[in-house]
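We treat protein structure as text, and this decision shapes the records that our systems exchange. This encoding replaces a full spatial description with a residue-level series of whole-number codes. Below, we set out a record of this kind in full and without editing:
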Amino acid sequence: MEFTGEIATLQQGMAASRDLAQRRLAVLHELAPARGARVLEVGCGAGLLLREIGLAVGPHGLAAGIDVSPDQVAAAEVATAGVPGVRVELGDVTALAEQEAVFDAAVAANVLEYLTDPEAALMAMRRAMKPGARLVVLATNWDSDFWHGTDEALVAPVRAAWRAAMPWPNLPAKLGPMMLRAGFGALRQVPVPVVNTTLSEDLLAPWMARLQAVEAGPEAGGAWLAALAAADANGEAFYSSVPILTAAVAV
């Protein structure tokens, strides 16, 4: 999945939702960026989490964000403008191989499940982290992604298209062994659930619906969105998702 163009615009709208603001708080609590620390964010997206990390580490720290999407890097530069110590770069996580043991903490929020080889990404992150550095990964078990309010015949092709676009649709279930092989220990996993009963623009549901509809194509996606809007008007729309926060320590 390429986070450019329409996909990038939708992701940026999603990032501003109340649900993702609460998710960022959960990630920040686990990451606990200290004043003066050097923190890496892989797949910084719209930059809202990176901004909070930059404010936490202060002018003598470093909040380094990397993303493969030029559109997302541009958005992150706007979001973090004026925050000392923030650095945003266009690039792939494998470029981290050139940086050895320089970061005190690292985070990847809803990024690794979109990669062909998440274990290689974890290894690259480990090389860039100091021993004892904290790692926080947020990923969703997409088979637990649930929509209600439309006929199953409309939901099924959308669900199938979204799952097909995800190299690792249920990554949290496989992260433990991957992290151990990559050089991390002290693993802990906790859910960060989302439940929406409307398609209000300040919630995750409408943005996720549009993203999934894009992957399904104009015919299947358009029919499903229309049915979902009608269900919302009747008070029948429902969406739930179960992202899993996995925390670990570099050994």
Summary: Residues 218-233 form the longest helix (16 residues). The longest strand covers residues 129-140. The mean pLDDT is 94. The two ends are 32 Å apart (CA to CA).
